[in-house]
């Protein structure tokens, strides 16, 4: 199919169109993804998350520059799980895109996935597949760390960098919120504000005491706005990936992620089948009426409905 | 069943135990909810949401005091979609609980629903059903307005108060984020900071220009920390509910909410059936292997899986 062919040639416009199809849950999205599936798997997918204001965009830009300098073909997918915008670039991204246009070496895309059928993880992974098939070698997936989004970025990535800053109790908040649980590497940014060493020490203590499997968690101190610590962060990513490829952990994580992903897609397909079917709306309305008139609990109503629609 | 009987008598400990069962997705939760279903429907469910720091807790406290003063039996359910804590009271709630213990007239519960199977809406609605059956007459559901949570609070409530403050661009942010779309009443809090009239004017203009169906949106200016505007907010709720009961819109919304809820529960039950079934894990693993070895796209793998498990 022509669009898939253009994606395979690495054409930025074709990739953009493909991602828009994915975002809009268009039927053609399936066709493109199916057509490309034998060419997916070569790119490294690096997630990057952290609280608002920690410096994610700056760090992504600096990482990108470092990767481009050594010949990688980088794509950036910025996922905003809280924004209702879809399909377009956000203001901040336009500025960054202009800055990085440099001969079209970097593909950059914002995805606003709130309300997308099937959720953030599904559309982000589909977009990453398109980019992967297009020949990009590193896909940076950036998302703000709120709510469920960090769990989903973890499922979409080969490794996750969690960014914290020494200010405003990020460390404690991160421990409480579960952000640390998905970290493969921690970057303490804004080292110039002071307190970075203290935060590093606190994190190390926490890992020693509580999170035993994380005892060897790489912690990198950065000052992204001045490019400081970026080579060390790149080295941490390279080292982690090399070690995991050697031990088989890399492929194991891809397998786990793919199992999760297939389950999510299966649930999405079933839901579509259920509620798009003929007469489904009438059956749901009847079940709701039963509950509202106190003849059944919502669970009994739903169970009867499931029996009927799956029959 | 004994627990259900104790809930019906309005016993706070029994209600608490019931909600914990719901949070933990325990099998007994179903039994309790089924046993109580014929006694659910009498309570008014009022959602209250807005950005962090807008004064939601204070407003809920003041509303509660006003409702208690006129003889209502109030329950507060504070939902934190970003917190991984489950089943326990958060620090802030402890302070508030102590303040409101006043003879056990108010039931207060925090629910941390991140990662709960089936999501925030399902567990919150189940908890509200328990409280409803226990004889509470008003259930205030408070949640921070981030991500998907406000859509879910709207589904769980008879009406939703969206709180904004004049500072920090809450208004613009609310318009952009879709928060206004779920509002039945708007409360502009922190009127003492200045700018409340301006925000009210901006909102009215926006409703006139863009959101036609919201032209008559009640907007109340409050200063909750001093109790100012609370009688007006109570009057706005009473007026809205009375009008909707008169027009049939109240029951219509309950019907829509219940249809959504039954669909959500049906999806939850199907997912449980799918993945808890014998051999499901092996089938998922085989599908993932097919995709990782580039024989199929994730969608093809998921579709085959669905066919097989639903057969």
How would you characterize this protein structure?
Two copies of one chain form a homodimer. With 311 residues, chain A is of the alpha/beta class. Chain A folds into two domains: 41-247, P-loop containing nucleotide triphosphate hydrolases (Rossmann fold); 264-309, no CATH class. In chain A, 54% of the residues lie in helices and 13% in strands. Chain A has 13 helices and seven strands. Chain A has helices spanning 2-8, 12-23, 27-36, 56-69, 91-100, 119-133, 149-156, 170-177, 196-209, 230-247, 249-276, 280-292, 298-309; strands spanning 44-50, 74-80, 106-112, 138-144, 159-164, 185-188, 219-221. A seven-stranded parallel beta sheet of chain A has the order 3-2-4-1-5-6-7, sandwiched between helices. In chain A, helix 8 (170-177) links the parallel strand 5 and strand 6. The longest helix of chain A is centred in the last third of the chain and has 28 residues, at 249-276. The model of chain A is unreliable at 84-91 (pLDDT under 50). Chains A and B meet through helix 3, helix 11, helix 12 and helix 13 of A and helix 3, helix 11, helix 12 and helix 13 of B.
Kindly summarize this structure in a few lines:
Two copies of one chain form a homodimer. Chain A is of the alpha/beta class and 311 residues long. Chain A has helices at 2-8, 12-23, 27-36, 56-69, 91-100, 119-133, 149-156, 170-177, 196-209, 230-247, 249-276, 280-292, 298-309; strands spanning 44-50, 74-80, 106-112, 138-144, 159-164, 185-188, 219-221.
| Mass-distribution shape of chain A | globular
CATH architecture of the largest domain in chain A: 3-Layer(aba) Sandwich
The string of secondary-structure elements of chain A, in order, is HHHEHEHEHEHEHEHEHHHH
Kindly report the name of the CATH homologous superfamily of the largest domain in chain A: P-loop containing nucleotide triphosphate hydrolases
| DSSP strand count of chain A | 7
Low-confidence stretches of chain A: 84-91
Query: Describe the biggest sheet of chain A?
Result: 7 strands, parallel
Mean pLDDT of chain A: 85
């Amino acid at each position: 199919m022509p669009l898939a062919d253009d994606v395979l040639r690495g054409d930025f416009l074709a990739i953009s169109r493909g991602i828009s199809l994915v975002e809009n849950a268009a039927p053609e999205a399936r066709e493109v993804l199916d057509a490309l599936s034998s060419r997916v798997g070569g790119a490294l997918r690096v997630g990057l998350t952290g609280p608002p204001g920690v410096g994610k965009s700056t760090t992504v830009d600096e990482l990108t520059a470092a990767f481009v300098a050594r010949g990688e073909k980088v794509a950036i997918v910025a996922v905003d799980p809280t924004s209702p915008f879809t399909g377009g670039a956000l203001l901040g991204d336009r500025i960054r895109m202009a800055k990085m246009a440099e001969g079209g070496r970097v593909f950059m895309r914002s995805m606003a996935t709130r309300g997308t059928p099937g959720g953030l993880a599904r559309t982000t992974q589909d977009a990453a597949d398109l980019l992967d098939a297009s020949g990009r070698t590193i896909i940076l997936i950036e998302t703000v760390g709120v709510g469920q989004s960090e769990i989903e970025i973890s499922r979409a990535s080969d490794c996750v960098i969690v960014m914290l800053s020494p200010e405003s109790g990020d460390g404690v908040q991160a421990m409480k919120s579960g952000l640390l649980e998905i970290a493969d590497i921690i970057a303490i940014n804004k080292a110039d504000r002071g307190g970075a060493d203290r935060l590093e020490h606190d994190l190390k203590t926490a890992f020693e005491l509580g999170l035993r499997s994380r005892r060897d968690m790489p912690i990198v101190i950065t000052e992204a706005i001045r490019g400081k610590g970026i080579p060390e962060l790149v080295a941490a990513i390279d080292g982690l990936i090399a070690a995991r490829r050697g031990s088989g952990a890399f492929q194991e994580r891809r397998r786990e992620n793919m199992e999760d992903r297939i389950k999510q897609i299966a649930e999405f397909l079933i839901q579509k089948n259920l509620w798009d079917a003929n007469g489904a709306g009438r059956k749901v309305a009847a079940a709701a009426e039963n509950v509202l008139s106190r003849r059944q609990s919502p669970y009994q109503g739903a169970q009867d409905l499931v029996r009927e629609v799956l029959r």
